[in-house]
Amino acid sequence: MRYEEWMRRLKNLFEIIECPARYKVALVTYQFEAEVKYWWETVKPREGEDPITCERLKKMIDNQYYSRDVRRMKEREFLSRKWGSLSIMEYATKFNELSRFAPH
Question: Which of 4, 23, 33, 58 is deepest in the core (most CB within 10 A)?
């Protein structure tokens, strides 16, 4: 879940610095390393093509690196979760972590 944490931190940073939308993709992709950087080189817009929004980039990353099977598994885990012996804090933490996989 490092990816999800990274995306949350970027979102928070963008809010704090009031980052204009036109700079977000460049700031995100500047941080890519290794395999993700190579992947980006193959999918980024070329000269004359429409730019990619941050929302579109997230969907592209999700599709490439966060498989549908993993998302479904997390959704099932969320929907069938037994909260029995968890403390309130553990429950809230786990709930927030898994709720993003549930359909809205």
Answer: 58
